[in-house]
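Hey L., structure's done. Input below.
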Amino acid sequence: MSNKLTVGVLAKRVGVRPSAVRFYERRGLVASERLANGYRVYGQEAVGVLRFINRAKALGFSLEEVREILTLRRGGAEPCDCVRAMIERNLLAIDERITELSRLRRQLLALTSNSARKRPAEAICPILESDAANGSGDGKVSAN
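Output:
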């Protein structure tokens, strides 16, 4: 067992919690063996796999994308073309999200100028019920 790692040792070496190691194992991303005493042990390759998973997650890759990459690699294929396609897809999604967040930021900035508006009797909060909150930006309080 000298080259095998327990879940605690593996987790500490990679900088994750043992529960994360078990989670990735249940998802089929990391393999373990069971000893006669029931303990899980992991090979040295689990260190690299877990570091890869952490890096990929930090770069915004989903676990399904990570699974696809690992499956290709374990099958003997070079996954870099697949990774490039994933990166391009993720960049498009990020650009769309940036556009959405920029629009939301403009709406929220417009709402700050509405904070001194008179409150109609039926309004809960004229700031959030104004047309500016609905995206029209004219600052009028909605009658909705």
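Confidence is low (pLDDT under 50) at residues 137-144. The first helix runs from residue 7 to 14.

-- N.
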